[in-house]
Amino acid sequence: MHTLRPATLDDIDFLLNVAIEATRTQGRLSPEADEPGWREGYADWTREQIAEDPTGTSVIELNGRPIGRLRVTRHPASIELCGIQLDPAVQNQGIGTAIIRALQEEAAARGVPLDLGVERDNPNARRLYDRLGFRKFAEDDREDKLRWRNDIWTAEVAAHYDTPGDGMFSADTLGPTTARLAELAGSGRALEFAIGTGRVAVPLAARGIPVSGIELSPPMVEVLRTKADEATIPVTIGDMAAVRVPGEFSLVYLVFNTISNLLTQEDQVACFRNAARHLSPGGRFVIELWVPELRRLPPGTPATVGIADPDYILLDTYDVLHQHVTSYHFRFTADSTEAHLERSPHRYIWPAELDLMAQLAGFTLESRHADWTGTEFTAASPSHVSVYRQI
After folding, report:
1. Which residue intervals of 233-315 are DSSP H helices?
2. CA distance to 113, 205, 211, 246, 336, per residue, from 264 (Å)
3. Which stretches of the chain are DSSP H helices?
4. What residue spans of 190-323 are helical by DSSP H?
5. Distance CA 359, CA 273 (A)
6. b/e burial code for range 298-312 (CB count within 10 A of at least 16 → b)
7. Three-class SS of residue 241?
8. Around Cβ 230, how many Cβ atoms within 10 Å?
9. Angstrom distances, CA of residue 348 to CA of 69, 327, 371
10. Distance, CA of 196 to CA of 125 (rounded, Å)
11. Which among 232, 195, 103, 378 has a CA at the least distance from the CA of 116?
12. What share of the chain is helix, strand, coil (3-state, %, to 5)?
């Protein structure tokens, strides 16, 4: 059984040796590499890291013997796995997998994603991360950025997500929504970010608009496939802030507050930029989003009750420092005092901040209404439909 302990300055030599030996064993250490220079720089960097964040760097031990190095940075909105190296003698024994799964459990408990970077010349690590559910969300000139999220959109949730004819699936809701989107798409193609089970995409396609989608949850797409095949509504699995779909679109849209599922401002800006990459000149990006209910929070009260029905209660807890909301959904079954709890994390966005994100991605605000029917947006409006046009 492995254990972790905080690294100290006395561990510097071991941390250097295990990092370089793990890299060499992977065949990723060039024969021309300046090993003495690399060691000197790595030692200085490690000393700085230990001084700045004493708990961020850990020594991995097995039966009291040091066998590896772990570097983790904990941010308010994410956990970042910065590096893990194991002595080649203990590799392929499940230790690295166990460490990553523990970090996934920590991230799930906090309601934040787990991020890491993997060099493109390290296919073994990439296969491990793929198997553990990480998906690419960004890249730089050297490595791919991967992200794992606790999948709240599980097969169980997907199976019970649709409520045909009721709530957000009612004709009174979907009629105005799809009519407005069809008007904005015109004669072009539409792309839905976070297409889910096709609540909006299926009736929009029925209006004659070619619709494609991006979706992070395969179980949600499986439900969509019971309504429309791949040829009718093609879907790409991945992160809506990063995944590229072939072709150009006249309309990209994001409904029902889904941009708030991206938990950092950086990711939300990336979502705008990804929308811009998909649009033809002059194309539109439409977002439906709720207005944060901070005016309902008395001093010292961290939560609001959004819905209080006999069989369902919605409770939102606010972290105003980081603009985070956690929604707690309590669903009661008939003739029972027990409730089923689901939890979803969000980052709330003020309309003005949303407009600035749009500007950074090359959009300008074309219109903002309180709903899909064109009701005037006021200071009392609980939500808005904002239409951005590419400049």
Report:
1. 265-278
2. 10, 32, 28, 26, 38
3. 12-25, 35-52, 95-110, 123-131, 155-159, 171-185, 201-206, 218-224, 265-278, 351-360
4. 201-206, 218-224, 265-278
5. 10
6. eeeeeebebeeeeee
7. coil
8. 10
9. 36, 11, 18
10. 30
11. 103
12. 35, 30, 35
Q: How far apart are CA 288 and CA 136, in angstroms?
A: 25
What's the farthest any 2 CA atoms get from each other in the chain? 73
Is 258 buried (19+), middle (13-18) or exposed (0-12) by CB count in 10 A? buried
Contact 381, 291 (CB under 8 A): yes
Strand 190-193, strand 249-254: pairing = parallel
**Type of residue found at 271:** C
User: Taking all residues of the chain, what is their mean pLDDT, rounded to a whole number?
Assistant: 91
Q: What is the pLDDT of residue 156?
A: 85
Given a cut of 50, the residues of the chain with pLDDT beneath it are none
**Could you tell me the sign of the dihedral formed by the alpha carbons of 38, 39, 45, 49, in that order?**
positive
User: How far is CA 56 from its chain centroid?
Assistant: 23
Give the residue from 162, 168, 243 showing the smallest Cα distance to 196: 162
CA distances from 293 to 68, 315, 352, 377 (A): 47, 12, 15, 15
The label of the residue with tokens 């309590």 reads: 330
Q: How many residues does the chain have?
A: 391
Q: Which amino acid is at 249?
A: F
Residue closest to 275 by CA, chosen among 237, 244, 296, 299: 244
> Residue 237 burial (CB < 10 Å; 0-12/13-18/19+)?
middle
Residue type for 211, please?
A: V
Residue range 230-239, pLDDT digits in tens:
999 999 988 8
Half-sphere exposure at residue 75, Cβ-oriented, CA atoms within 13 angstroms: 14
pLDDT for residue 27: 66
Q: What is the token pair recorded at 293?
A: 């209910």
Q: Is 220 exposed, middle or buried (0-12, 13-18, 19+ CB in 10 A)?
A: buried
Q: Is the dihedral of CA 30, 31, 34, 39 positive or negative?
A: positive
Q: What pLDDT is stored for residue 29 in this prediction?
A: 63
Distance of alpha carbon 15 from alpha carbon 100, whole angstroms: 19
**pLDDT per residue over 113-128, tens digit each?**
899 999 887 888 888 8
Distance CA 103, CA 217 (A): 21
Q: What is the pLDDT of residues 78-110, one digit of tens each?
A: 899 999 999 989 988 999 999 999 999 898 878
